[in-house]
Design a protein that fits this description.
Helix content: 10-25%
Radius of gyration: 12 Å
Number of strands: 5
Number of helices: 1
Order of helices and strands: EEEEEH
Structural class: alpha+beta
Distance between the termini: 33 Å
Amino acid sequence: MSDENNNTQGLQLDVSKTFPPYGNLQQYRLAKITTFTCDRCTKQKTSKLVVTKDGDWDTLLCNGCYGWLRSDKEKGK
């Protein structure tokens, strides 16, 4: 698996794993724990898991918001 370098919120992120996409959401595991601000809940998070929406690395979502969005979309089916 190849690493990707992505610059977001002024951070250099190294992706160690890419998970299957879910609609327009894409979850990644980073090589190092990173602190970022979730675009949805606006809370500061520290995690190896981050989510992009529509491939936009400037607006990351936390794993909690990713789970909420997934469960919310599942209810709508």
